[in-house]
Every structure is written in structure tokens, then in C-alpha cells.
Design goal:
The protein is mainly alpha-helical. 61% of the residues lie in helices and 6% in strands. The protein contains 8 helices and 7 strands; from the N terminus they run ααααααααβββββββ. The strands form 2 sheets. It has a 5-stranded antiparallel β-sheet, with no helix packed on it. Strand 5 and strand 6 form a beta hairpin. The longest helix is centred in the N-terminal third of the chain and has 93 residues. It is rod-shaped, with a radius of gyration of 57 Å. The protein starts with a helix and ends in an 11-residue tail after the last strand.
Length: 543
């Protein structure tokens, strides 16, 4: 009995320990969840925000890093799996079992207390019968002593003796009855006590023992489940780590270097040598050669000024690149980059043209079906869509033609504007450089780049008109589209305006024209309808 309280305390400690371990698992789950969340936030922070194809990673080192981020994101997902598995298999099971364990422990303890209360009740009944028997025996002894005293007393009457004898018999009878009652209660108590200590209490203790053992087994299973939750994801985590290693091995330094070369390759020729400028000529000047020297000095001054102006443009490759708006024909880019951009645009336009052609074929087939089976639809309802598709096809073909002309210019398939340079440039002491994008210059005539008809943020034709006599008209043209002509050297025109042609397109996409008021300049050939005089090169039309 004295160990019942100890078992009560021990089983309570077992439940407290179970709940403490459950709290430990809960905190571990929170750690895993927070770890996974922080990993996902980290991946999100460093993942590229791609708004266009141009921003997609190209370098192998960047691609490898983004692959590592993807693997890390998968790794974070596995940490979430660990947390979910622990929450379901360990923590949830522990909380359910702790509730059941408390209920079972309470039931067993109540049974033990009831058994103890019943045994105490039996003991009180036996004790009461014992005390009553003892009291009756003392009363019987007193009655016997009284009877013997009266019986020996010669002065006592016979009636008193008889009365004392009856009292003795009554007390003796009551003592015998209490003796039998006490014997029965004693036998009953001994039986209940034997049953209590050999049957009831051992059974309750056994149940408590089994309950505690099941608790220990449950803890063992939860320990194993705790480890299994981690072990199950190890193969996938290993694959994530292997993916990171493969990403690291995929880094190719030579390929990245080549990408840098291809990205920034301009196609410009290196700048030419600076000429020697002799400022000592005036020291040795004589009267006989004074005029010639002065002429040479004057010419040298002009050329020096021109050389410096041109040399500044040549330093573009190694100095600060001029700023300007992005142009339609990419003339603001170096030749090599311009060629790549134009080729990409032509490929995109060809894909769009193919889609429009497929759509046109599909509409024509549908129209034929409607014409053969009018109940399926009205052929006329497809006409607006067909017209729109045809307009799109014509527009795309014009765009492709225009971009192919620019591409041919860059690739050097056609000549530059070298033959349109003024003869006065040849007389310079130094070779005057060709004009390149945004006011820079290059010596290679085939690598000259000019801006598109839409927007010009720099001077491009600033040396095209220098005190030349007006050229004769060789034809006329009509503006198909309006042209603003912001760039110096270009000529603004309105749609439908008629101009004189004084120099035809040399293959670079520009035609030199003149208004009736004598104003001259270059206009984009694709914006005009050109007709040459019969006595020049025959009637030729450009669209």
C-alpha cells in the first residue's frame, strides 16, 4: 500500500516526460519550418527577375549559380517535408497518446483507491465487531462475579440469586453471539485483505506497469520516427547536393570569356597614327618660299583642327561611349553588335511572317469550306480577317526588307558613302576618318554606321555639304511616309511631298534629295518612291 503513492508519482513523471519530449519535437518542427522559409526567401532574393529575354543569364557561371538556387529551393522543400513528417508522425502521435495515457492512468489509480477504501471498510467492520465482543465479554464477567457473590451470600434472597443467574446467562449468550460475529468479520476481513494484496492490487500494479512500458515503447517509436523523418529525405537532399556539384562543374571559363568577346566585339578598326605637325617651318621661311609656306601652314592648321576632331571620335573604343537614344536600325551600336541585333530582329520577323502566312492559309481553307458548304458559315465574314492578315504580311515583308538592307550595309555587301565624299577631303594632309555612330569615326568605309529615319540624337551628315556647287537633278521622288529629319544632313519631308533626286541610293539606305527652294539633305530610301530620269539610269522605283 505504501508504494501506491510512489507509483502515482512515477506515472505522473512519465507523462510529464512524454509531454516535454513532445514540446521538444514541436520546437524542432518550428526550427525546420523557419529554416525552410528563410531558405526560400534567400532563393527568391537572389533569383533573377527576368523582364525580357535580354536579361536571361548567358554565362555558365551565372547559369550554374541559378541552378544552385533551384537546388537550394528543392532542398528547402525537403526541410518542409521533414517538418510535416515530424508533425504528423511524431508530434501528433505524441499528443494523442499523452491524452489516452492520462485517461488510462486516472482509471487505474481510481481502481486502486477504491480497492483500498473497500479494504479499510472491511477492517472497520471487523474492528467494530471485535470491540463489541470484547465489551460483551467484560459484561459477562461482571454478571458472573455478581452471581457468584450473591450465591455465596447467605443473606441474599433466592429471587436475587435467580435474577443474577438469568443476567449471567443473558450476558454469556450475547458474548457468544458477538464472538461469532467477530469471528465472521475477522474471517471476511482476512479474505478481503488476502484478495486485496494478492489479487486486486497486483492486478492494478500490473496494469500501471504495462501502461508505463507502453509509454516507454511509444517514446522509442517516436525517437525512431524522429530520425526516420530526416533519413527519408536524405536521398533527395543528396541529389540536390549532387546537382549543386554538377552546376559547379558546368562552369566553363573559356566559354564565358568568349561570350564577353562576342558581346563587346565592336568591329571597329583601331585608330590610325597621328601625323607629325611641323611648327618650325616659320623659322626657316625665306622670302622666296614665303607664299608656299604660308599656304602649307594654313592647310596644316585646317587639317590639324580636323584631325583633332576626328581623333576624338576614334577614341570611342577605349574612352567613354557617347550617349544617345536607341535607334531602330541599331546604328548607335558598334558594327558587330549591330549585325547581331539586326539578325535577331530578322529572325523574329521571319517567324512572325510564317505565323501570318499559316493563318492566311488556314483562313483560305476555311473560306473554301464555307463556300462549298454555306450552312457552316458565311465566307464574307472571313474577309476582314483575311485583309488584316494580308496587311500584316505586307508590313512584315517591308520590315524584313528594310532590316536586310541595314544588315547588308553592316556586313559590307554594299559600298559605303566613300564615293560621295567631297574631293576637297582628298587634299587634306591627313586622311579624314569616316563618320561612325553618334559622332565617332572609323577609317574603314565598310564599317560605317548611320542612324535610322525615326530618331537621330547626334550629328551624322555634318561633313556632307561643304561649299560644293549644286548638283544637277537626276530624277524626282514622292514621299510615301513622313520623315522628321532631326539629324543634321537629313532632310525633313511630309507624306506626298515631291522632291528632286540629286544623288541616288548607293546601297546604304539613303538618297540625297533637294526641295524646290534649294534645301538639300538625305532621306531614307524606304520612305520614298523614286523615279530617275531616262537620260540618267532609266526609270527605277524603290519602295
Amino acid at each position: 500500500v505504501d508504494q501506491f503513492d510512489s507509483l502515482d508519482k512515477h506515472t505522473q513523471w512519465g507523462i510529464d516526460f512524454l509531454e516535454r519530449y513532445a514540446k521538444f519535437v514541436k520546437e524542432r518542427i518550428e526550427i525546420e519550418q523557419n529554416y525552410a522559409k528563410q531558405l526560400r526567401n534567400l532563393v527568391k532574393k537572389y533569383c533573377p527577375k527576368r523582364s525580357s529575354k535580354d536579361e536571361e543569364p548567358r554565362f555558365t557561371s551565372c547559369i550554374a549559380f541559378f541552378n544552385i538556387l533551384n537546388e537550394l529551393n528543392d532542398y528547402a522543400g525537403q526541410r518542409e517535408v521533414v517538418a510535416e513528417e515530424m508533425a504528423h508522425r511524431v508530434y501528433g502521435e505524441l499528443m494523442r497518446y499523452a491524452h489516452d495515457l492520462k485517461t488510462e492512468r486516472k482509471m487505474h489509480l481510481q481502481e486502486g483507491r477504491k480497492a483500498q477504501q473497500y479494504l479499510d471498510m472491511c477492517w472497520k467492520q471487523m474492528d467494530n465487531s471485535k470491540k463489541k465482543f470484547e465489551r460483551e465479554c467484560r459484561e459477562a464477567e461482571k454478571a458472573q462475579q455478581s452471581y457468584e457473590r450473591l450465591d455465596n451470600d447467605t443473606n441474599a434472597t433466592k429471587a436475587d440469586v435467580e435474577k443474577a443467574k438469568q443476567q449471567l446467562n443473558l450476558r454469556t449468550h450475547m458474548a457468544d453471539e458477538n464472538k461469532n460475529e467477530y469471528a465472521a468479520q475477522l474471517q471476511n476481513f482476512n479474505g478481503e485483505q488476502h484478495k486485496h494484496f494478492y489479487v486486486v492490487i497486483p492486478q492494478i500494479y500490473k496494469q500501471l506497469q504495462e501502461m508505463d512500458e507502453r509509454r516507454t515503447i511509444k517514446l522509442s517509436e517516436c525517437y525512431r520516427g524522429f530520425a526516420d523523418s530526416e533519413r527519408k529525405v536524405i536521398p533527395i537532399i543528396s541529389k540536390c547536393l549532387e546537382g549543386m556539384i554538377l552546376a559547379a562543374k558546368s562552369v566553363d571559363e573559356r566559354r564565358d570569356s568568349q561570350m564577353v568577346v562576342d558581346s563587346f566585339k565592336s568591329g571597329f578598326e583601331p585608330p590610325g597614327d597621328f601625323p607629325f605637325e611641323d611648327y618650325s617651318q616659320h623659322i626657316y621661311r625665306t622670302i622666296s618660299d614665303g607664299t608656299i609656306s604660308a599656304s602649307k601652314q594654313e592647310s596644316g592648321k585646317v587639317d590639324a583642327k580636323t584631325t583633332v576632331g576626328k581623333a576624338k571620335g576614334k577614341l570611342w573604343l577605349f574612352g567613354k561611349k557617347p550617349k544617345g537614344p536607341a535607334l531602330e536600325d541599331f546604328s548607335h551600336l558598334p558594327p558587330e553588335q549591330r549585325r547581331k541585333k539586326l539578325q535577331q530582329r530578322i529572325d523574329e520577323l521571319n517567324r512572325e511572317l510564317q505565323k501570318e502566312s499559316d493563318q492566311k492559309d488556314a483562313l483560305n481553307k476555311m473560306k473554301d469550306v464555307y463556300e462549298k458548304n454555306p450552312q457552316m458559315g458565311d465566307p464574307g465574314s472571313l474577309q476582314p480577317k483575311l485583309a488584316e492578315t494580308m496587311n500584316n504580311i505586307d508590313r512584315l515583308r517591308m520590315e524584313i526588307h528594310k532590316n536586310e538592307a541595314w544588315l547588308s550595309e553592316v556586313e559590307g555587301k554594299t559600298g559605303g558613302r566613300g564615293d560621295r565624299r567631297h574631293s576637297s577631303d582628298i587634299n587634306h594632309l591627313v586622311t579624314q576618318g569616316r563618320e561612325s555612330p553618334e559622332g565617332s569615326y572609323t577609317d574603314d568605309a565598310n564599317q560605317e554606321v548611320r542612324g535610322p529615319p525615326q530618331q537621330h540624337g547626334h550629328h551624322e551628315f555634318d561633313d556632307e555639304f561643304e561649299d560644293d556647287d549644286p548638283l544637277p537633278a537626276i530624277g524626282h521622288c514622292k514621299a510615301i511616309y513622313p520623315f522628321d529629319g532631326h539629324n543634321e544632313g537629313t532632310l525633313a519631308m511630309k507624306e506626298g511631298e515631291v522632291l528632286y533626286i540629286i544623288e541616288e541610293d548607293k546601297g546604304d539606305g539613303w538618297t540625297r534629295a533637294r526641295r524646290q527652294n534649294g534645301e538639300e539633305g538625305y532621306v531614307p530610301t524606304s520612305y520614298i518612291d523614286v523615279t530617275l530620269e531616262k537620260n540618267s539610269k532609266g526609270a527605277v522605283t524603290y519602295i
